[in-house]
Task: structure prediction
Amino acid sequence: MTTPTSPGPRPFVVGIIGGGQLARMMYEASIGLGVDVRLLAEGPDVSAAGVVHDVTVGDHTDPATVKAFAVGCDAVTFDHEHVPAGLLRELEDSGVVVRPGPAALLHAQDKAVMRERLTALGLPCPAYRVVPDAAALVAFGDEQGWPVIAKTSRGGYDGKGVWKLASAEDADLPFAGLAPGVQVVAEEFVDFARELSALVVRSPSGQAVAYPVSESVQRDGVCVETVTPAPGLDPEQAVAAELLALTVAHELEVVGLLAVELMQRRDGSVVVNELAMRPHNTGHWTIDGAHTSQFENHLRAVLDLPLGDPATRAPWTVMANVLGGAVDDLPSALLHCFARDRRLRVQLYGKSVRPGRKVGHVTTYGDDLDETRKRARHAAAYLMGDPDA
Ligand code: ADP
Result:
């Protein structure tokens, strides 16, 4: 005769708001941790909704939807930073554990707030000014010298909401159709040599780990490739960049993954471009190239579990994004990629292919940078429809 067994202690439940590829890859990490993921997805067909079984389709700006979703979650975290801060504060006040919390998250949501805080902390930022109108933007450009960069304080992504203005002539552009509550931030144009990304993870109890700094290559405002560690980065500069990111995480009391996007000037010094408080495209290499992926460490942090080792597995790790191109049938295109390179690692996001859309990424690692990069570039190019690359 069998006796009923007790269901045992229940697993942790993490609610993820937003159903893009970041949520999908967090879900993958949750499986090994025995963590239950609950997803609030924008629609039934988004990337993570194709794999998570506990899915609510709903609007992440609707208080009733978000509050109902949060019931029973040990922690609520994010795939994007678009949940209104006021709504998150209400959630926190009602006892929901929101990680990162709204006070920290605001610095990833609003570039004006971020610039003000980081500058006050003495951290390196480009010269900037919040400008109320085109005349003030022109005055800033005349003082700093043209070109200048103008950005909307909120709502930009992948280079949208960022303008490089060559002269006063186009100063009206950033102000056209500005949504309520959105400001324009004018910034000194940084003639950078390259972009770097410093990723750290911090838990509520204050433990923090830093991943090696990556170089990130952007095209048309979209990350196309990362190389880790950043080639040629002076060890002292690497430590300084990691410390900078740890300082931001500590001062802002970030919980989970913090990405600090940096611009490295031609003299080697760095300034902060922007912050993200969720797993980040420049950390995708960690799935295959680090002992603990950014997705697993993010989940560990939001549950206040000890963090895993962020160290690399190989001297070089290269990640290349697969952007929608001429290939519709990505799974079939894998035949060639895998036949050619047995150590190639691939993540496809289950998204339909549209030009320029991030639909997957490939990762390679090895001892030789050129060879490792070549393998990643070939596979990504093939998946984007360029078999000769
Ligand atoms: P988004 O939020 O769309 O990612 P960013 O603020 O990261 O916007 O800017 C997009 C890109 O514009 C950056 O990756 C960088 O290449 C460039 N950029 C941003 N700020 C500056 C600046 N002050 N000087 C020069 N280039 C900049």
